[in-house]
Design brief:
The longest helix is centred in the last third of the chain and has 22 residues, at 433-454. 56% of the residues are buried. The protein is α/β, with parallel strands linked by helices and 611 residues long. It is 35% helix and 22% strand. The strands form four sheets. Strands 3-2-4-1-10-9-11-15 form an eight-stranded antiparallel sheet. A seven-stranded antiparallel sheet has the order 5-6-7-8-12-13-14. It folds into three domains: 3-248, Aminohydrolase, N-terminal nucleophile (Ntn) domain (Glutamine Phosphoribosylpyrophosphate, subunit 1, domain 1), CATH 3.60.20; 257-431, Rossmann fold (3-Layer(aba) Sandwich); 455-593, Glucose-6-phosphate isomerase like protein, domain 1 (Rossmann fold, 3-Layer(aba) Sandwich), CATH 3.40.50. It binds fructose -6-phosphate.
Length: 611
């Protein structure tokens, strides 16, 4: 969950590394550091705190090297501190290492190294890596480049867990070695220079041509050459891929924060997700999804597996898929699915939703489903992400880079894509054609309807100013509106640190209503005409107990509530795409009123590549 960056070229590495780290801070932000190769050897500067503090430190300006590595940390082993921050050096100061991921067997390796007189400064799992490389380097009989490569490959074979590692060696002042397993790493190709990062957006302003490393692949990098090796040191060939994301997409572009930018980008991101996949008068087209009628007729269950916001998108997707395809759908958190024995076989289609494509639990769940002979379909936002290398099929949301830790535009794009998949399956199965045609026209209206919803921003901001000091907030809804309540509640807690709960409206009276007292805030989503009267009765029950009410609806309501945000009418199956937006804006402004860092909430990081 940390971010890593590297540069090797003719320019000064320091500003490029700092620039990359600033863009990577959403992956972790409790400490940061860089190492460069100077005339006098490897020089490392690191500190506890944000990248800005590293950038402002006096010493950092003394770094002139043109090769360097950098890291911004989200602590797993060892508290945030300067000593625990990366890069870590070996005892002889020959190797400097930055690492993303977790070394599960680090305790045993540490004991092994201690028995050979190695000493350790930090509490991290990472510090074993440079020392182990040193140990293997000392014991290698190879010479030159092969000696370094052998030391690194032997080290990676001793590591259990997940890792993306960049290594500098003072004996090779013109090179860098990188390796990955179960943690992302890309190499951006320039002219007489190369860039390395855990995430494409961090180096997108420098290059658009990327090499993607697979598990247990290594690269030996010079300014003008990149050699790739497998774990047995055989050379492998790789083609660079051109990434079409616009470099500006990874910038704030005049918005105060990435989250606000990403909320406001939703008309565009949803349009991009729809792309040419559906048009009104022809059949849907998802070229990468080669599941035909014969296969679809054999499946008796669809599992949707994901984490957090992506799972809530999956819950909305369940309603759409069941309604259009008439196949039962189960939704489960990947962290649960992977540790039980789910009933999955060749008749189950398993869909894995992940914005980053790197979430450890989701990838592990996918591997489990595959081992049980299910077909696997990944929905991801990041081209070439780890999950795409495991899944039978991957389709992309094309929402553009999502930088803010709190997911917004990825969620709406995930639901749109699930709706398009449901349409595609129903068309292949030749069922529910009327519903399919209606849904298609309603999907095509979404981008302009999202623009309408965004016009409520100032009113939502005023409501946020009224309630930002609350301690508890409740979200309620029925049917698909309940899935939006869950997502609204998650958004609020993660960026405003207000405790909140989401309940199906009808469940209040079975217990939670005991918590309702004077002035408590209840946020209710009401988009289904058939359920509106029932839900209003539930809201009246809390109003009579003194609750403040914030309603998001596309129905005409003849009742007095504290605030009613009216959104355009749409097909109930896709209403979450519109009704979630006011909740995103509300959470955003509450966080701003509290003076919090909206893009980088405490204790969280953008992609959860550890268990
Ligand atoms: C919440 C949020 C998280 C992610 C979850 C899965 O705003 O961002 O709940 O949705 O960690 O991440 P991905 O989609 O990258 O697998």
């Amino acid at each position: 969950m940390c971010g890593i960056v590297g540069y090797i070229g003719e320019k000064k590495a320091k500003p490029i590394l700092i620039n990359g780290l600033l863009r990577l801070e959403y992956r972790g932000y409790d400490s940061a550091g860089i190492s460069t190769i100077e005339k006098s050897g490897i020089k490392t500067i690191k500190n506890k705190g944000r990248v800005a503090e590293l950038e402002n430190s006096d010493e950092i300006n003394k770094l002139n090297g043109t090769i360097g590595i950098g890291h911004t940390r989200w602590a797993t082993h060892g508290k945030p501190s300067t000593t625990n921050s990366h890069p870590h050096m070996d005892n002889s100061n020959t190797f400097s290492v930055v690492h993303n991921g977790i070394i599960e067997n680090y305790a045993g390796l540490k004991e092994f190294l201690k028995s050979r007189k190695y000493t350790f400064l930090s509490d991290t799992d990472t510090e074993v890596i440079p020392n182990l490389i040193h140990f293997n380097y000392q014991n290698s009989e190879e010479k030159g480049k092969k000696r370094l490569l052998e030391a690194v490959t032997n080290t990676s074979k001793m590591l259990k867990g997940s890792f993306a590692i960049e290594i500098l060696c003072s004996d090779f002042p013109d090179n860098m070695v990188v390796v990955r397993k179960d943690s992302p790493l890309v190499i951006g190709k320039g002219v007489n220079e190369n860039y390395i990062s855990s995430d494409i957006p961090a180096i997108l302003s420098f290059t658009k041509d990327f090499y993607l490393l697979n598990d247990n692949e290594f690269a030996f990098i010079s300014r003008d050459q990149i050699e790739f090796y497998d774990e047995d040191m055989n050379i492998i060939k790789k083609e660079a891929r051109n990434i079409t994301w616009d470099a500006g997409a990874a910038e704030k572009g005049g918005y105060p924060d990435f989250m606000f930018k990403e909320i406001n980008e939703q008309p565009k991101s949803v349009r991009e997700t729809i792309g040419a996949r559906i048009t009104q008068n022809s059949k849907s087209s998802i070229p990468d999804l080669k599941l035909d009628k014969e296969y679809l007729k054999t499946i008796n269950k669809i599992f949707i597996v994901a984490c957090g916001t992506a799972m809530y998108a999956g819950m909305a997707g369940k309603t759409i898929l069941e309604s259009l395809c008439e196949i039962p759908v189960e939704v489960e958190a990947a962290s649960e699915f992977r540790y039980r024995n789910p009933i999955v076989n060749e008749k189950t289609l398993c869909i894995f939703i992940t914005q980053s494509g790197e979430t450890a639990d989701t990838i592990a769940a996918l591997k489990l489903a595959k081992s049980k002979n299910a077909k696997t379909l990944a929905i991801s936002n990041v081209i070439g992400a780890s999950i795409s290398r495991e899944a039978d099929y991957t389709i992309y949301t094309h929402a553009g880079p999502e930088i803010a830790v709190a997911s917004t535009k990825a969620y709406t794009s995930q639901i749109v894509l699930l709706a398009i998949i449901a349409i595609n399956f129903a068309e292949k199965l030749e069922i529910n054609q009327e519903k399919v045609n209606e849904l298609k026209s309603d999907i095509l209206l979404l981008p302009s309807q999202l623009e309408e919803v965004l016009k409520n921003t100032e009113r939502i901001k005023s409501f946020a100013q009224r309630i930002y000091k609350e301690k508890d907030v409740f979200f309620i809804g029925r049917g698909i509106d309940y899935t939006v309540a869950l997502e609204g509640s998650l958004k609020l807690k993660e960026i405003s640190y207000i405790h909140s709960e989401a309940y199906p409206s009808g469940e209040l009276k079975h217990g939670p209503i005991a918590l309702i007292e004077n002035d408590v805030t209840i946020i209710s989503i009401l988009t289904n005409r058939l359920l509106v009267e029932k839900s209003i009765s539930n809201i009246q029950e809390v109003v009579t107990r003194g609750a403040k009410t914030f309603i998001i609806t596309n129905q005409e309501l003849n009742h007095n509530f504290d605030e009613v945000i009216t959104i355009p009418k749409t097909n109930p199956l896709i209403s979450p795409i519109l009704s979630v937006v006011p909740l995103q804006i509300l959470a955003y402004y509450i966080s701003k009123e509290k003076g919090l860092d909206v893009d980088k909430p405490r204790n969280l990081a953008k992609s959860v590549t550890v268990e």
